[in-house]
Amino acid sequence: MTTDDLMILLGGLKLSAWYAVLSIATGLPLGLVLGLLGTAPSRLVRWTTLAVVELLRGLPLLVVVYLIYFGLPSIDVVLDAGPALVTGLAISAAAYTSEIFRVGILDVPSGQREAARSLGLTGWHELRHVVLPQALSIVRLPVISFAVLIFQYTAIGFAIGLPELLARSYGIGSVTFDYLTVFLVAGGFYAAVSIVASALIHVLRRDKSGPAVLPA
Length: 216
Description:
Elements: H1 3-37, H2 43-58, H3 61-71, H4 81-106, H5 110-118, H6 124-153, H7 165-176, H8 179-206
Helix pairs in contact: 1-4, 1-6, 1-7, 2-4, 3-4, 4-6, 6-8, 7-8
InterPro entries: AA_ABC_transptr_permease_3TM, ArtM/GltK/GlnP/TcyL/YhdX-like, MetI-like, MetI-like_sf
Main location: membrane
Pfam family, one: BPD_transp_1
């Protein structure tokens, strides 16, 4: 494999990373909203949210991307391959991280909420200043782990013609016929991202400092 081939793969890596960043930046806030709705006092809201989340989680990611890229044009909604992939990944991220956020919110000790109310914090202020800081601290590690999966899932872009890392690897292999080397290098790029994320998770686990909490 030549230096030019390596540069082509690096370009694909950058594109995959960019799609992952956009998907995470869109999907995580949606997942947080769904997680909050999943802890709402209203049973109707909770069960409706659960039904939506389970429906989205039950669909294979490739099917979601195909529905967006190939299906929506039938109702005059046309997205290019990049936005279609990002939308599909964001939907998947929202569905799966919603449960992570929901559990994190429920894990905040009830005494913290009671202490917040005793200090006159209600509603939005309690959520913003007490619940969310602690919940986000609780879920940060699984969220980082899922973000790595989103990066790996960008390989699905190959199925709709995106020139991301996997597609460029296949393109080089189809010219050089050295598929083994090319895919080993591409796999090394994917693994490198996972290793960096694992190192970050290890550092965060060692960090015992968390958000300040109210005395229960």
